[in-house]
Amino acid sequence: MSLDEKFTSVRLAFYQKIGELFEKIALTLGYPENPGMPIEANNKVLNIQDWMETMPERVTYFPPAQRPETWFEMIFGPAPKVEPLPRYLYETKNEGFYNFYVENFKNLFFLPDWLSEFIQIKLNICLDISALEISREIVFIGLVLFSQLIALRIALAWLIYINPYTFPWSYLVTSVDWTEEALQGLVPSVFGVNVTGSVFLGAIGSLADSLNNLVFTMPFLPSEGEPTRLVINNQIKDVLVFHYLPVLWYRYPIPNDIRQFWMDERPDILEYMQMAYHDLNLTLLPDNNTFIFF
């Protein structure tokens, strides 16, 4: 009996337990009777599944498309870059100063509300999301580089005149072959060919694509997005709008550095917040400051 045959029962049992776990989670959320909140689109009331099917998909590429802009990049190739979905900021007298919208696609990803709240409240990352953008860029570049190592390892396996366990190829084997060892017995071979590397490569591409389509909604929670339609470049497009007062600024004190910025550099924002949300008893002045607008 081969090693793959010995792991067949374990693999099937693993698949069955994962399926049962997903089914239990779905049942607690009301599946299949609960189709989600109805949404009005194009004068029709649709459930969430049907509405999402009407959304277009955002197309990104992995590995990233090569668009050299300098002579150095033409020779050595451009560095991989994330293709984030742009956020369009806007200000109005009615909605305030921290509004933005993003184009809506069916394959967008958002952080869970609890994680977004933790990042904003505990890590104090609210308006300046450059740290999150840099972290995403680092992870994305790491995935691109590791995928290239996997592709090189797969190509090396077909070159029978190269011993992969000799210097310098042994370093490549050590950095990549742990993925095959981890998935051995779970991913079956196809016509006797081990496809573990290809499957893992596809998983990396899917994760990298998710990073491209991940939208940071600070200072709002992802659930605060309101689907609507706007005219953009003479075309009607579906968008998600985040506007008015972020709910976290109502549940928790507004970060003091933001209130200090309003006081020192943007008194117009402070005056607007005092006039628009005076009935919510928000703390709008910075700490140790008693100056009040009238």
Gap between N and C termini: 85 Å
* Secondary structure tally, helices: 11
Task: Tell me the number of structural domains.
Answer: 3
Oligomer: single chain
Shape: elongated
Instruction: Please give the radius of gyration in angstroms.
Output: 25 Å
Question: SSE order in H/E notation?
Answer: HHEEHHEEEHHHHEEEHHH
Count of DSSP E strands? 8
The largest β sheet comes out as:
4 strands, antiparallel
Structural class: alpha+beta
What is the residue-averaged pLDDT?
Answer: 80
User: Which percent bin holds the helix content?
Assistant: 40-55%
pLDDT < 50 stretches: 290-294
Beta percentage is 5-15%
Q: Give the neighbour order of strands across the main sheet.
A: 3-4-8-7
Task: Describe the protein.
The protein has 294 residues and is of the alpha+beta class. It folds into three domains: 1-34; 37-246, no CATH class; 253-294, no CATH class. 44% of the residues lie in helices and 13% in strands. Strand 3 and strand 4 form a beta hairpin.
Key features of this structure:
alpha+beta, 3 domains, 11 helices, 8 strands, elongated, disordered C terminus
